[in-house]
Amino acid sequence: MLWKPTEDDELRLEWKWLQSVAIFMVISNVFMPVFTIFLALFVLFKHGWKVIATPVNRAYFWLSIWMIFTTRIAFNPALASGGLANFLPYFLLAAITSYIIRTRAQFIHFLWLLVFSSIFVSGFGILQAIINRPDWIFPKVIFDSYPIPMGFSPDRRIQSFFGHFNETAIYLLMLLPIAFHFAIGKVKSISKSQRWIAIVALALGICVLILTGSRNAWGLAILGFGLLALYYRQWKLLAGLGFVLLILAWAVFGQEFGLGGEALRSLLPEGFVNRLASTIDPKLGDYASTADRLNAWQLALSLISQHPIQGWGLRNFPLIAKSMGYDLHGLPHEHNLFLAIAVGSGIPALIGFVSIIGWTIWISIKSTIAKETEGTIFVAAIGVVLCLLSGWLDLVFYEPRISMLLWGVLGGMYGLAKVTNTEKQTFLGLTQK
């Protein structure tokens, strides 16, 4: 069933609205965030702000206040004000989602809808690869902000609906563990057709993840499947995954360290090998992306040491670099989520950001209701962690759809965790029908 009703008449409309957000989220990075903001405003005006005044949501509120304060004293307040849009609306989305999602049936269905909608992204990416006419420009998606070439980039990468290959990769990366969990039949409460849709989403998602050429996402995908193997207690699968990784590392990097592996290297796709090897080999063209990141991180750390408390203002990093005569080699940001927050709003904001998300994950997987979600809370937590870990090497949270995905899932997890025992007995009765 694509649309799942709820017997809670008070939130029937809000739940349908949230389901439509999950399905059509990927269509536009302008229209869908606005559509979601209207949902948040509707909930606040209809039910009042007290319905979301829970401990985690209060923490989001105080973090928002701190970010607003640092914006007022930023290097360039106007630019920093735009940076608030990358965080504050999504904190509210997490709060609203945690109010709407109250049952395990809702949470599981919400995650399944997100997996279903990923087929739009991966399917379009496969279509780009098949057509491979980059000179053909797909008409801008509804209210979208950039053209979409119908083929590979000059360095043989696919971007699908997103503005950059890495954005596509991280979006799919977060959903692959969830799709895998549905696809292998771990969730008994979904239908056979829903399971087959998850299988299709998983297969297409893996293909397009490879085609994005994102080394960051490739490595994290392997880590994600390793965590899943640990969770499922599949020790042979974990050992096999480790063995394959060692073989690949020997083939790709063995020659660099005088350990051989040339014969095996010749059996792997040249583009795949060069993409990985260029991470540490200055003689290869793609090494520039590694060097540029290191260069940006050096400046970021210097700026943090100068203003560790209040920061310099969100999204002010390239402007500050320009004013100092520091060459970022074309990078538009810090290429690291955690450094970006610390540079923008200071170390207190970074501590608050990490603490809130860590707190949400911890109380969610430790909650009594987590055992009744057929593992979906833990697998969703893996997706969230992978998305956050991608922030060590990149900064894709300027893409609204990735932020909507992340905070929507976090909100759903917290929505279950905060249900009291009385509420739990009331709402869990719905899931037995």
What topology does this entry show?
Elements: H1 12-24, H2 31-47, H3 55-72, H4 77-84, H5 88-100, H6 104-131, E1 133-138, E2 148-150, H7 165-183, H8 192-211, H9 215-232, H10 235-253, H11 262-265, H12 270-277, H13 287-306, H14 317-323, H15 337-366, H16 376-389, H17 400-417, H18 421-431
Antiparallel strand pairs: 1-2
Helix pairs in contact: 1-2, 1-6, 2-5, 3-4, 3-5, 3-15, 5-17, 6-7, 6-8, 6-17, 7-8, 7-9, 7-16, 7-17, 9-10, 9-16, 13-15, 15-16, 15-17, 16-17
Please provide a written account of the structure:
By secondary structure, the protein is mostly helical. The protein has helices spanning 12-24, 31-47, 55-72, 77-84, 88-100, 104-131, 165-183, 192-211, 215-232, 235-253, 262-265, 270-277, 287-306, 317-323, 337-366, 376-389, 400-417, 421-431, and strands spanning 133-138, 148-150. It has one domain.
